[in-house]
Amino acid sequence: MDNQKELFRLMQENPQMEVIPMVYEDVIGEDYSSYQGKLGKVSLEQYYSTDERIYIRSKDEEELEEYMSELLEQDYEEFGKAPGVKEVNFELMLSNRMEKIEWKEVILLYIEQI
Prior knowledge:
The chain has a four-stranded mixed beta sheet with strand order 1-4-2-3. The longest helix has 23 residues. Helix content is 39%, strand content 27%. By secondary structure, the protein is an alpha+beta fold. It is built from three helices and four strands; from the N terminus they run αβββααβ.
């Protein structure tokens, strides 16, 4: 099935889902104000975004866990242990933080270079 037909099918089957266009860095240039692209892969995905980037659950969950681990370490270095806490269990804290992530279900539409 071509990408346009797949996009329309997913939109009809999931009218409540937002369509998120994703652009690869090779599509974007620095010389002009706009660039032409083409419809690429379309899929139902879950994503989570931070101030720095977007994480796609099916391929970036491990990287997100690494990012969250770094944040925990930074918090510990900056603030230390809470009063009365004898030992910090980073694995448990990381697991709890990962479980609380609110993944958003969307239709991802990749825009590719022509």
